[in-house]
Amino acid sequence: MSKLFGVSRKKSYQAKETRYEKMNYRRCGKSGLLLPEISLGLWHNFGFTDDFKNAQNLLKCAFDNGITHFDLANNYGPPYGAAESTFGAIFKKDFKSYRDELIISTKAGWDMWPGPYGNFGSRKYLISSLDQSLQRMGLDYVDIFYHHRPDPETPMEETMAALDHIVRQGKALYVGISQYSAEETLKATKILTALGTPCLIHQPKYNMMDRWVENGLLDVLENKGVGAIAFSPLQQGILTDKYLAGFPEDSRAVKDGRYLKTSQIDNELISKVTQLNEIAKSRGQSLAQMAIAWLLKDQRVTSVLVGASKTEQLLDSLKALDNLEFSEEILVKIDNVLK
């Protein structure tokens, strides 16, 4: 926490006047909201164990390049809540005057505090969690509030009614869902529409190696006018050239085995990544850039949610937007590698 109180009080940040010139913005489903084709996720690198100045530079770099959407969740850290607190400190110092140019989202649905009321999808949990999130971030409202995952025990009617209530309270402008199946999404959108608060957006895990959304979910989103923002576009760093020559000491597989273990990166996987890397080179892109562009080739994908540990990495991801076109031949090559 101490890092948050050691921020120097220099002249407030002035965003670049050219920030909107290169970014493309897509309509989110059938709503009135436009989102940048690339959004910044604060899942990693914004905890209390991370460098505050680096986090500050990442947000400034993002906004200076037209990324208007910052995505958080109640339990991003470490510890839980830290990313929102870090964001709140940076927002207060640098971004308060730009509030109306920002889309800020957060979520609740995974474990957040001890006891029976700090997890899943009850009305009690969702409303309490958002109140805490707003306090940590120093905001009156968020632009998008998500239910972070389906709850098999709580009636969906209760969860969706809580989202509707949150909008009517003025604590969120829009609501969304994350990791709901096609069938669950269809039910959720029907309930929300009947309540008068349409579902704006779905946030699924989606990348070249994890394509479950293609088995019905994207069709439901298109039919119901719901946007999509893909998270984990690089499959936790696998869809980069990072692991082609071994395991770098600063890689996620080495530093943090919770979401990616070194044992998952076997010879068969490296062979596929190597072939994809060659295809990317033939397009004049890095593998990471091609992986992001591959998602954006589908107009049903409103935005791709990237993470970054440093500004250079974020700027590299933004270069994906320079080439979003894929020939049928290249798409067939990619599919053949991934079979």
What do you see in this structure?
- By secondary structure, the chain is of the alpha/beta class.
- It has eleven helices and ten strands.
- It has helices at residues 52-64, 82-95, 123-137, 156-169, 182-195, 217-224, 252-255, 267-282, 287-296, 311-318, 328-338; strands at 25-27, 34-36, 38-41, 69-71, 103-108, 142-147, 172-178, 199-203, 227-230, 303-306.
- Helix 2 links the parallel strand 4 (69-71) and strand 5 (103-108).
- Helix 1 (52-64) packs across helix 2 (82-95), helix 3 (123-137) runs parallel beside helix 4 and helix 8 (267-282) runs antiparallel to helix 11.
- The protein is globular, with a radius of gyration of 20 Å.
Number of domains: 1
Number of strands: 10
Instruction: Describe the sheet with the most strands.
Output: 8 strands, parallel, barrel
Shape: globular
**The CATH class:** Alpha Beta
Query: What is the percentage of strand-forming residues?
Result: 5-15%
Mean model confidence by pLDDT = 93
Write the CATH homologous superfamily.
NADP-dependent oxidoreductase domain
- In helices, the fraction of residues equals 25-40%
Structural class: alpha/beta
First-to-last CA distance:
47 Å
Spatial strand arrangement across the major sheet: 3-4-5-6-7-8-9-10
Write down the secondary-structure element order: EEEHEHEHEHEHEHEHHHEHH
The parts where pLDDT drops under 50 for at least 5 residues are none
Instruction: Return the CATH architecture.
Output: Alpha-Beta Barrel
